[in-house]
């Protein structure tokens, strides 16, 4: 009887152990799958957001017929900033933006910003500098459109749909989020970038 009881307890112990190990393995595999899904979701968000900036650069440079008409691209002598900044009709920086419109330095700074941010975010490198530059650019664009205004300078309705949270704010938050999460390692060159000596020594370049 004692031997039988001992054997029964061992079987019970082994069964319980196998269940725990299976449960732990299931939890671990679920955690890995969840982590992978989150990484891929962030990578997708990163790539699409980077493409927004890169596409704006390409369209304004070559006049692809979307926001910039064919034949009016930067390579054709058009100004990427003149149309937008000269049409600013609300906000505390309206006259400043009018003065900047079409200036060579503004065109170059704007276009290099679009190209640099787009390439960096899509490839997953230098996400922190890209997030800072992108947030600054988006803040200026937000100020130019000035969503808090209910009316334009001429008295017409501004057609603003939200006094704060427009697409500029959303894009800025996305840039900050992917940089903070280090989202360049999935479907990107983030790991290779991080191994460069200058990047290892200067964490703000990651």
Write the layout of secondary structure elements.
Elements: H1 2-62, H2 82-86, H3 94-100, H4 104-123, H5 127-145, H6 167-180, H7 190-194, H8 197-201
Helix pairs in contact: 1-4, 1-6, 4-5, 5-6
Q: What report would you give on this structure?
A:
The protein has 206 residues and is an all-alpha fold. Helix content is 66%, strand content 0%. Helix 1 packs antiparallel against helix 4 (104-123), helix 1 (2-62) crosses helix 6 and helix 4 crosses helix 5. The protein is globular and about 55 Å long. The chain starts with a helix and ends in a 5-residue tail after the last helix. 22% of the residues are buried. The model is unreliable at 1-19 (pLDDT under 50).
Keywords:
206 residues; 8 helices; 0% strand
Strand content: under 5%
Q: Termini separation (Å)?
A: 68 Å
Question: What's the total number of strands?
Answer: 0
Summed up, the helix count is 8
Class inferred from helices and paired strands:
mainly alpha
């Amino acid at each position: 009887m004692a031997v039988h009881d001992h054997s029964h307890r061992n079987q019970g112990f082994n069964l319980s152990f196998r269940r725990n190990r299976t449960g732990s393995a299931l939890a671990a595999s679920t955690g890995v799958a969840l982590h992978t899904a989150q990484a891929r979701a962030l990578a997708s968000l990163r790539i699409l957001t980077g493409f927004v900036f890169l596409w704006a650069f390409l369209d304004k440079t070559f006049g692809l017929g979307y926001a910039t008409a064919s034949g009016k691209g930067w390579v054709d002598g058009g100004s990427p900033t003149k149309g937008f900044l000269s049409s600013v009709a609300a906000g505390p920086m309206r006259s400043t933006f009018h003065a900047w419109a079409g200036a060579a330095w503004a065109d170059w700074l704007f276009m290099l910003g679009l190209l640099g941010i787009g390439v960096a975010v899509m490839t997953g490198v230098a996400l922190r500098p890209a997030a800072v530059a992108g947030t600054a650019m988006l803040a200026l664009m937000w100020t130019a459109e000035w969503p808090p205004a209910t009316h334009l300078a001429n008295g017409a309705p501004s057609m603003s749909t939200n006094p704060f949270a427009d697409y500029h704010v959303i894009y800025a938050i996305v840039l900050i989020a992917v940089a903070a999460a280090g989202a360049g390692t999935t479907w990107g060159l983030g790991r290779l970038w991080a191994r460069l000596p200058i990047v290892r020594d200067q964490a703000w370049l990651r």
